[in-house]
Design a protein that fits this description.
The chain is α+β, with helices and mostly antiparallel strands. The protein contains nine helices and ten strands. The protein has one domain. It has a four-stranded antiparallel beta sheet, sandwiched between helices. Strands 4-5 form a two-stranded antiparallel sheet. It has a two-stranded antiparallel sheet with strand order 6-7. A hairpin with a 5-residue loop joins strand 6 and strand 7. Helix 4 packs antiparallel against helix 5. The longest helix is centred in the middle third of the chain and has 27 residues. The protein is globular and about 50 Å long. It starts with 22 loop residues before the first helix and ends in a 27-residue tail after the last helix.
Length: 305
C-alpha cells in the first residue's frame, strides 16, 4: 500500500500532499476530533450536553468474506460494500479488494444511559434527544468523513444516506435494510451481537453506529472474536437475559429479537409519547440498551465462568 504522502491528489499540483499520517491514524484521529469539537455533538438541551463520548473506529476490507456470508444469510435487501460502491459510482470499475469500510461506534454519555436505565416503559428525555439529534450528528459526521476523503482524492460514499438505501423484508429475519451499520461495525472488529440484536462493544451496547465506504487501502482492524455472540453473557455463560425483562414490548425472548413487535411498539407507543412529552418528532426506546450489564462495557471480559 502506498503511503499517503507518496500519492498525489487528482487535479491538484504536484507539491500538494495528502496527510502525513498513515490512513488509519488520519481517519481515526479526524473522526475523534470532529466528535470532540463539533457543536452538532449535542443533546440540544438547555445545558448543551454532549450526545456522545469518544468514538471507537475500525476498518474492514470490502472483500472480507464475512460481508458475502452475511448477505447470503440475511438475503435481500442487504448489499455488499462493492455493490453499494458500484451503485454510488456507476462505471467506476472498483473491485471489492480496493475498498475499505470505515466504521465507528458512538457511545452515549453516562448521564443519558443512567437516565434511561431508570425508566421502565418509555424513554427519558435525554435518550429521546440523543436518538433524534444524535442521528443528525451521525449524518454530519458521515458527510465530514466523505468530504475529507474526497478532498484527498478518494471516492467515498455513506451507504445509509445513499438515495437507493431502503428497508425491505428478509425471509429469515424480517425487517432488513440495504446496509447495516451494526454489521459493518461487527466485521470491522468493533463488537458482537447480544440476545436483543444490539451490538455489544468494549464501550457497551448503548451506542449509535455509522460508516463510510471508500476506495482507499487501509489495513483491516483485527477482530478479537470468532463468535458473533462473544460479548453476550446469555450466549457465553448461559446467564443474564436482562434485556428480556427490560423490553416493554415483549419483543425479546430466549429465542431472540422479534423485530415486528419492536417496530410496532416504537411507532405506536414511543413515537407519540416522545412527540407529546418532549416535543420531538421521533421515536425512541433503548430499554434493552440501558439498565443491563452490557450497557457501558463488555461484561463477558469481567464475568466469572
Amino acid at each position: 500500500m502506498k503511503h499517503p504522502e507518496d500519492e498525489q491528489v487528482p487535479g491538484q499540483e504536484n507539491d500538494q500532499k495528502l496527510p502525513a499520517q498513515d490512513p488509519a491514524t488520519w481517519l481515526t484521529e479526524s473522526i475523534r476530533l470532529f466528535c470532540r469539537n463539533s457543536p452538532e455533538n449535542s443533546l440540544q438541551n438547555a445545558a448543551q450536553d454532549r450526545a456522545f463520548d469518544e468514538p471507537l473506529v475500525g476498518f474492514s476490507s470490502g472483500a472480507d468474506p464475512l460481508y458475502e456470508s452475511l448477505q447470503k444469510d440475511i438475503g435481500a435487501p442487504l448489499m455488499t460494500p462493492a455493490e453499494i460502491f458500484r451503485r454510488s459510482f456507476p462505471g467506476t470499475g472498483a473491485t471489492a479488494e480496493e475498498l475499505t469500510v470505515i466504521s465507528w461506534v458512538l457511545p452515549h454519555i453516562p448521564a443519558t444511559i443512567a437516565d434511561n436505565a431508570d425508566r421502565r416503559f418509555l424513554p427519558s428525555e435525554r435518550w429521546a434527544r440523543a436518538k433524534h439529534f444524535g442521528a443528525g450528528f451521525v449524518k454530519e459526521l458521515s458527510r465530514r468523513v466523505v468530504s475529507l476523503l474526497e478532498e484527498a482524492g478518494y471516492e467515498a460514499t455513506a451507504p445509509q444516506y445513499a438515495p437507493f438505501w431502503s428497508v425491505g423484508m428478509s425471509k429469515k429475519y424480517g425487517l432488513a435494510s440495504a446496509w447495516s451499520e451494526r454489521h459493518a461495525a461487527h466485521v470491522s472488529g468493533l463488537g458482537t451481537f447480544g440476545l436483543c440484536d444490539g451490538l455489544i462493544t468494549q464501550k457497551g451496547k448503548a451506542i449509535i453506529c455509522g460508516s463510510v465506504i471508500a476506495r482507499i487501502a487501509v489495513p483491516p482492524t483485527p477482530r478479537p472474536y470468532t463468535d458473533h455472540h462473544a460479548y453476550c453473557l446469555h450466549f457465553t455463560h448461559g446467564t443474564c437475559g436482562k434485556c428480556i425483562t427490560r423490553c416493554p414490548a415483549r419483543a425479546v425472548s430466549k429465542k431472540g429479537h422479534n423485530k415486528l413487535l419492536c417496530y410496532a411498539y416504537l411507532m405506536g407507543i414511543t413515537k407519540p409519547y416522545v412527540k407529546l412529552r418532549y416535543g420531538i418528532d421521533d421515536y425512541g426506546c433503548g430499554m434493552c440498551q440501558t439498565g443491563v450489564p452490557c450497557d457501558s462495557r463488555d461484561p463477558v471480559r469481567r464475568a466469572p465462568r
